[in-house]
């Protein structure tokens, strides 16, 4: 089922699922930034990873509590773009595991496409 054929209620349910995903990812980033950095193949950037974790949790809470999740979905899209920029900057350094970094980048692109599709779907319904 494409986003264009997904009804409003289903898209909102997807947004709520993304909210729970954000909270889980954010918690992992806050609790274990070093382990997450190793998993994606980069050096440790604990403060940055923790800040991104706080951003994820805020987006997740917003998605779960807002009557209209659309602005929070756009916030996730912006956060995904920031994540991709950070992964790109990490790729420019010499101390990375390029295979792990490529997998992490692909995962962020995949989630970003879901976030973007949901945000566009809800935005088109608001007009």
Q: How would you briefly describe this protein structure?
A:
With about 130 residues, the protein is an all-alpha fold.
Helical region count?
5
Provide the gyration radius in Å: 15 Å
> How far apart lie the N and C ends?
22 Å
**SS class:** mainly alpha
Which regions are unreliable across 5 or more consecutive residues at pLDDT < 50?
none
* Main beta sheet: none
Structure description:
This protein has helices at residues 8-31, 33-40, 46-65, 70-91, 98-126. Helix 1 (8-31) runs antiparallel to helix 5 (98-126). Helices cover 81% and strands 0% of the residues. It is an all-alpha fold. The model has no long low-confidence stretch (mean pLDDT 93). It is built from 5 helices and no strands.
Topology:
Layout lengths: L7 H24 L1 H8 L5 H20 L4 H22 L6 H29 L1
Helix pairs in contact: 1-3, 1-5, 2-3, 3-4, 4-5
């Amino acid at each position: 089922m494409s986003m264009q054929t997904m009804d409003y209620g289903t898209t909102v349910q997807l947004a709520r699922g993304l909210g729970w995903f954000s909270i889980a990812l954010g918690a992992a980033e806050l609790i274990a930034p070093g382990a997450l950095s190793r998993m994606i193949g980069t050096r440790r950037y604990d403060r940055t990873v923790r800040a991104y974790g706080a951003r994820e949790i805020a987006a997740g809470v917003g998605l779960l509590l807002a009557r209209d999740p659309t602005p929070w979905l756009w916030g996730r899209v912006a956060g995904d773009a920031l994540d991709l920029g950070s992964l790109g900057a990490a790729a420019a350094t010499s101390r990375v595991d390029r295979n792990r970094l490529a997998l992490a980048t692909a995962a962020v692109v995949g989630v970003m496409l879901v976030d973007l599709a949901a945000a566009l779907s809800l935005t088109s319904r608001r007009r």
